[in-house]
Design brief:
About 30% of the residues lie in helices and about 25% in strands. The chain is of the alpha/beta class.
Amino acid sequence: MSREFPLARPALRASRLLLALLLLAIGALVAVGGARSASAAPAPAAAAAAPVRIMPLGDSITGSPGCWRALLWNQLQNAGYTNIDFVGTLPPQGCGVSYDGDNEGHGGILATNIANQNQLPAWLSATSPDIVLMHLGTNDVWSNIAPAQILAAFTKMVGQMRTSNPNMKVLVAEIIPMNPPTCGECAQRVIDFDAQIPAWAQSVSTAQSPVTVVDQWTGFNDATDTGDGVHPNDAGIAKMAARWYPPLAALLTPGSGTSTGTSTGTSTGTSTGTSTGTSTGTSTGTSTGTSTGTTSGSTGGTGGTGGAACTAALSVSNSWQGGFQAGVTVTAVKALTSWTVTLSGVQVTQVWNGTAVTNPDGTVVIHSASYNGTLAAGASTTFGFLASGSPTPTPTATCATP
């Protein structure tokens, strides 16, 4: 009796093979379709650059209410550095203008106590700064603590900053003069302390985490720029903001995040306010963009004129008894490698983002800095200045190429 099973097995195997091939084909079609769907889907939008987080760290000069922070914030905003965030565990304390007031300015605090009590790590953890602006040591000096001991505290704090962020940028102030009625020795103690800061900064600065010295002492008069020999008045806060601005702006890119370069060294000034210090390192950020200013300026304290190569629009941003602060936007009509702006009707005491030369006739010529002289057609950059006297009538600004 014959059996049919051997004949059925090849057929069964063939059917199974056919089913397997069919499933593979369906799977391939699904995979191809899925791949095509994935490739056809629009790419997600690029995430916006995170704001640069800047911590103002200090004592009551920084935080109570520390209105140099308000002036500095608005200087940066007006210059196009808009993607920034001032951070700190302390809230704003009011300065009469709109600004980001978060800060780490603790009234009466000593740098040595911050270090000895390990207070800084918690503040860093809560705020995650990228840059720290540190005006600290006034209360230590007042307490007659030796400069070496204060700087040892600074060293510990810089180490804690780098633990929080290995790329931390630190701007450390040579603190403003101090001459309170109850401390006859304080004035000289500040001088002795400030004198040791540059060498200390150089010893701890690295390419990845530079420590830049900002000279807040030179040109600051405790008799006219403070109300009590210690805390800055309106004139004092304007000077402080103006000194912070150049080295801080060098670490930023207008409208976006931090530059990929570094800025180390010392930013100093003279009694006339001209910056004579150095700022070494590299910065790939450029101060470019578009300018909405016109060559004729606008109401509210603006003015400026231009030549064939560039235009200059001047705007007064702040004024006080005996002085004022202004900014100038330089816009290239055609591509430039350098520019000059001639200011008339003004006595300039300090300039940032440019170099000032006063002519015998009283006009002041501002020469572009090494990092903002090259402009593409239509691009803009800014510089600012402090001046004595009244902003009325508004000074004129005329742009030309050298």
